[in-house]
Design brief:
476 residues; globular; alpha+beta; 6% strand; 4-stranded antiparallel beta sheet
């Protein structure tokens, strides 16, 4: 049975073994290196802990950037994997030229992941400002994009079947976007890398979302590997090539994706064991850049970049929800993570003070944007004792989940609300939870975020395999 699987899906079993090895090695690598990171000043404070015990004290330094040993173990394992993938007894049985081309693609993915990890660690050490760190993934994506271009990767997209005049207007069932498609992939690399970093603020959420996305992509890959059919055909000694019901190149692409993602899952699960609530290490921007580049490398070089984007629906929603603050319509404080209520350990939404003196167009835009969000219970208003709205909860997915769950800020004193705020000062508004509010703990919020991520993946599968079959029947 093992031989049959290895014959049909070259080196897949090796990837599974490396995932297990990666978990064990990464777990102990983090245990052995965290004191070193702490000694070198790479540390942070967990502001959401109210327990004053030694380990959870809000003043205790927690080692940061522990995504680096996780990434190092992954890259080491993937390098070891290369001989099994290309020179083992179960390689693809294709021409030497094709093997060389595929090896070039694989190495370009590793180079992009290497550079993303390095630049992420540089960001952790130098604390690069957002305006300068946004283009970093563009640099990391250059190797895989160059190989994608050199290998003749498709830049065409399928035209929807309706409205029917589209096919007549475009004169075909697909349209070649050319350089626009490469621009899309570069933007995808930037988004996938930064969105993991943006949806952060509680223990384990960065690693957790990356694991759910990777598991979803692996499940999508497995849909193209018909194990029952393949195993029956693989027992036939005459089957010298990959036996499958789909084209060999399609299966090879999804095997490529699995070979990248399975070791990533193993090392990430080890990091989650240390980073989950209550966190003993912080992952830092190193892991966010590393995870984003692994996912985007698998998606672009596996030729399913559009499907990959569907699995980032929660991250897209978080970005869209944050846009009013990111583009200056609503003041944006430096930190937008929820607050912890004193003495209770329950989280309440962090809030921001609305600007009193601002341009007329900003006031108009704010009056248009905020009411629908408040109606949908994605944003909670903050009122003073005179009934005037003086602020709102910060526009993030974490705060939105708390508001949907029932957490509400209390009414603040009018004198406090009327205090002048300097133009460049922090607009954050510290508000306690309202009496009887349905606040939840940090651990519970993590489960809610993971639930949203899983629902997002289910939505992605529905769009990809149900809605797409209606809108793009040519795919079938």
């Amino acid at each position: 049975m093992v031989y049959a699987i290895d014959k049909a899906f070259p080196a897949l079993i090796i990837s599974l073994l490396l995932a297990v090895i990666g978990y064990v090695v990464a777990y102990f690598a983090i245990a052995w290196s965290r004191d070193t990171f702490l000694a070198q000043g790479l540390s942070g404070i967990d502001l959401l802990k109210v327990d004053r015990t030694k380990r959870n004290s809000s003043q205790e330094k927690i080692p940061e950037s522990l995504g680096l040993p996780c990434a190092a173990v992954y890259l080491f394992l993937v390098l070891i994997f290369i001989p099994f993938r290309y020179f083992g007894p179960s390689h693809y049985n294709v021409t030497v030229q094709s093997v060389h081309q595929d090896l070039t693609t694989f190495l370009s993915a590793l180079l992009s992941i290497y550079s993303g990890t390095l630049l992420g660690f540089v960001d952790d050490v130098l604390d690069i400002r957002w305006r300068y760190k946004l283009p970093i993934p563009l640099l990391s994506s250059i190797p895989m994009l160059v190989v994608y271009v050199a290998s003749g990767g498709s830049t065409s997209v399928v035209v929807p079947a309706w409205p029917s005049f589209l096919h007549a207007f475009i004169q075909g069932a697909s349209v070649n976007l050319g350089i626009l498609y490469y621009a899309y992939m570069m933007l995808l690399a930037t988004f996938c890398t930064n969105c993991v970093n943006i949806l952060a603020g509680i223990n384990g959420v960065e690693v957790g979302q990356a694991i759910v996305i990777a598991l979803s992509v692996c499940a999508n890959d497995l849909l193209y590997l018909d194990f029952g059919f393949v195993l029956r055909q693989a027992r036939d000694a005459s089957a010298s090539t990959i036996p499958m019901h789909t084209p060999p190149e399609v299966v090879a692409r999804h095997l490529f994706s699995l070979h990248l993602l399975l070791p990533f899952l193993g090392t990430s699960l080890a990091l989650l064991a240390w980073n989950r609530y209550p966190s003993r290490v912080f992952v830092g921007d190193t892991y966010c850049y590393f995870a984003g580049m692994v996912l985007v490398s698998a998606g672009i070089l596996g030729h399913y970049s559009k499907t990959l984007l569907l699995f980032f629906v929660p991250q897209i929603l978080n970005f869209l929800l944050s846009c009013p603050q990111l583009f200056g319509l609503v003041p944006c404080p430096r930190h937008r993570v929820p607050y912890v209520e004193k003495g209770k350990g329950l989280l309440i939404p962090s809030c921001v003070r609305l600007a009193k003196h601002t341009s007329s167009w900003k006031q108009l835009a704010t009056s248009i944007v905020l009411p629908p969000l408040q109606f949908l219970h994605l944003v909670a208003p903050v009122y003073d004792t005179e009934g005037n709205q003086v602020g709102v909860s910060n526009l993030t997915l974490l705060n939105a989940i708390l508001v949907l769950r029932g957490a509400r800020p209390c009414v603040i004193d009018s004198a406090i609300a009327a205090q002048p705020v300097a133009e460049n000062s922090n607009p954050a508004l510290r508000v306690d939870g309202a009496h009887g509010t349905l606040a939840i703990t940090e651990r519970s919020l993590w489960y809610y975020v993971m639930m949203v991520q899983i629902l997002g993946s289910l939505f992605a599968f529905g769009v990809r395999y149900w809605l797409a079959s209606i809108v793009f029947p040519i795919i079938n």
